[in-house]
C-alpha cells in the first residue's frame, strides 16, 4: 500500500573521493531492473501504457475457476477436513478469560489515574487563578453553573490526550471482542489467511506498481514444525520502470523470498484471481469446515485496489465482524493495524514499529511482497497465546511505555537508527560501501501469462 516513507526527504550530499567532486541523491533510481526470461518486451513503461492496459483488462477466469485445482497436490489438499481439538479449544478459552480480566483491571486503573490527573490539574489551576486575584467566571443567564474557562478546557484536553494507556472499551465491547475472536481464529489453527499488499506510483496513485500476496494455509502445516507460507511478489509490466523514491520508499527490486514475477497487468489479475478462487472460495464439504480471512495492515484499502484493477472479490466478506461459524461461509477481515490500535492506541501503529515491538526480524518494508509476508507473520505472532504471554503483551502499561520511549529516542540526535537510515549519513563512498547490507535477492523473471507463472516456477538450480 502507499505509505509515507519513515525517513526524512533525501538530501543531496557532496561526495569527495579525493579525485573528483560530485553530487549524489540517494532517492534516485537510474539503474533499470534486470528481468530474466525469454521474449521480455522492451517497450518503455509509462503511466499512459498502464492506464491503457487497465482499461482493457478482462478477467476471463471469473469468481470460481482455479487452475490450481487441476494439480494433484492441491487437488488432494481440498479433501482435508478440520478436526477440532477439545484441549486446544479449552486452552484458548482460558486465555480469553484471562485477557478480559487483565483488560478490565487495567481499564479501571487507567480511568482512575486519568480522573485523578484531571482533578489535580483543575484544583491547581483554580488555586493559581485565586492567587492571581482573577475574578470568578461569569454565571450563565439561567442561573446554572459557571461557564468553564477555555484555558482550563484546553489543559484538561491535553492531559487526556497525553494519558496512557488509553483503554476506552469494556471487555464486552465490539473492539475487545474483535481481539478475542482474532485469537480464537488463529490459535485454533483453523483459518486460511490470505495476506495482500499493494504499492502504487507516488505521482499517480491510480497506477499500481507492485502486488504482494502471502498465504498461510494450516492444511499445509498440520505436521510441520515451521509454518508453510506461499509468498508472491508481482511487478506490473506496464509500470516496471515507474519508480518511487521522492515521496515514498522504493524497494521494488528487493524481494526477500524468491523471484519477483514480472507480468502484464492482465496476467497479474488472472494470477491473483486463481489464488483467490482456490484459497478463499470453498467448493467441497471438507473445505467448508475451515475459516477464511483476508489479512493486511489497513487491508481495506488494498482490497479496493485489487477490485479497481479487475479482480473479482468474493461477495461474502464480513468487513465489520469476524465470523466464527464456518456454516455461514463468511470471509473475515483480520487487520494488524486495527488489532494494535484497539489494544495499545494509535501511537506507534506503523507496520515496522509493531514488528519491532513483537521482536520479529524484518527488512525492506514497502516492497509489496515483503509487506504481505511480514504482515501475515505479525498477525500470527499477535494471536499466539504462548508468544503473547512470554512477551507480556497483555501488560498495556509496559507496552505503551516502550512505544513512548522509542518516540522520545527518535526526537534525540543520539537515537539508534535503522541500518538504512544510518547508512545514508555516511558522506564518503567507501564508508557507505563497508556498511552495506549483505543481502541477496532472487531478482525478477518475466512471465507472459498467469498460467506460466503458476506452473513454471523455476527451481533454485535454474537461477542465473
Automatic annotation (TrEMBL):
It comes from the Eukaryota. Residues 1-20, 409-429 are annotated as: Disordered. Pfam families: DEDDh_C. Residues 193-382 form the Gfd2/YDR514C-like C-terminal domain. SUPFAM superfamilies: Ribonuclease H-like. GO terms for molecular function: nucleic acid binding. GO terms for cellular component: nucleus. InterPro entries: Gfd2/YDR514C-like (IPR040151), Gfd2/YDR514C-like_C (IPR048519), RNaseH-like_sf (IPR012337), RNaseH_sf (IPR036397). Residues 1-12 have a biased composition (Basic residues). This is KLTH0F01232p. It comes from Lachancea thermotolerans (strain ATCC 56472 / CBS 6340 / NRRL Y-8284) (Yeast).
Amino acid at each position: 500500500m502507499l505509505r509515507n516513507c519513515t525517513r526524512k526527504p533525501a538530501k543531496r550530499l557532496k561526495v569527495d573521493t579525493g579525485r573528483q567532486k560530485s553530487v549524489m541523491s540517494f532517492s534516485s533510481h537510474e539503474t533499470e531492473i534486470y528481468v530474466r526470461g525469454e521474449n521480455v518486451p522492451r517497450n518503455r513503461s509509462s503511466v499512459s501504457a498502464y492506464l491503457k492496459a487497465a482499461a482493457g483488462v478482462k478477467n476471463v477466469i471469473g469468481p470460481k475457476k482455479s487452475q490450481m485445482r487441476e494439480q494433484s497436490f492441491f487437488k488432494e489438499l481440498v479433501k482435508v477436513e478440520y478436526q477440532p481439538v477439545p484441549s486446544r479449544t479449552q486452552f484458548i478459552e482460558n486465555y480469553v478469560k484471562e485477557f478480559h480480566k487483565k483488560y478490565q483491571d487495567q481499564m479501571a486503573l487507567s480511568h482512575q489515574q486519568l480522573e485523578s490527573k484531571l482533578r489535580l490539574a483543575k484544583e491547581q489551576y483554580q488555586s493559581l487563578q485565586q492567587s492571581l486575584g482573577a475574578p470568578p467566571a461569569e454565571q450563565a443567564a439561567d442561573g446554572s453553573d459557571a461557564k468553564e474557562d477555555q484555558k482550563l478546557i484546553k489543559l484538561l484536553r491535553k492531559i487526556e490526550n497525553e494519558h496512557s494507556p488509553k483503554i476506552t472499551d469494556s471487555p464486552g465491547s465490539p473492539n475487545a471482542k474483535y481481539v478475542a475472536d482474532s485469537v480464537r481464529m488463529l490459535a485454533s489453527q483453523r483459518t486460511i489467511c490470505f495476506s495482500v499488499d499493494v504499492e502504487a506510483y507516488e505521482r499517480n496513485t491510480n497506477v499500481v506498481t507492485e502486488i504482494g500476496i502471502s498465504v498461510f494455509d494450516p492444511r499445509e502445516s498440520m505436521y510441520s514444525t515451521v509454518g508453510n507460507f506461499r509468498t508472491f511478489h508481482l511487478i506490473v509490466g506496464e509500470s516496471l520502470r515507474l519508480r518511487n523514491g521522492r515521496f515514498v520508499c522504493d524497494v521494488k527490486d528487493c524481494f526477500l523470498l524468491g523471484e519477483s514475477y514480472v507480468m502484464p497487468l492482465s496476467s497479474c489479475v488472472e494470477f491473483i484471481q486463481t489464488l483467490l478462487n482456490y484459497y478463499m472460495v470453498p467448493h467441497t464439504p471438507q473445505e467448508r469446515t475451515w475459516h477464511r480471512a483476508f489479512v493486511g495492515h489497513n487491508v481495506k484499502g488494498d482490497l479496493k485496489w485489487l477490485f479497481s484493477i479487475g479482480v473479482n472479490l468474493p461477495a461474502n466478506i464480513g468487513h465489520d465482524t469476524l465470523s466464527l461459524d464456518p456454516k455461514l461461509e463468511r470471509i473475515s477481515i483480520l487487520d494488524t493495524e486495527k488489532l494494535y490500535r484497539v489494544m495499545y492506541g494509535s501511537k506507534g501503529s506503523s507496520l515496522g514499529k509493531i514488528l519491532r515491538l513483537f521482536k520479529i526480524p524484518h527488512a525492506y518494508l514497502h516492497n509489496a511482497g515483503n509487506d504481505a509476508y511480514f504482515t501475515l507473520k505479525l498477525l500470527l505472532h499477535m494471536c499466539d497465546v504462548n508468544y503473547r504471554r512470554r512477551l507480556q503483551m497483555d501488560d498495556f502499561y509496559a507496552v505503551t511505555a516502550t512505544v513512548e520511549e522509542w518516540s522520545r529516542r527518535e526526537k534525540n540526535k543520539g537515537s539508534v537508527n535503522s541500518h538504512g537510515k544510518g547508512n545514508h549519513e555516511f558522506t564518503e563512498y567507501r564508508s557507505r560501501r563497508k556498511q552495506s547490507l549483505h543481502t541477496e535477492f532472487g531478482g525478477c523473471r518475466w512471465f507472459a501469462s498467469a498460467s506460466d507463472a503458476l506452473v513454471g516456477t523455476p527451481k533454485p538450480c535454474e537461477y542465473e
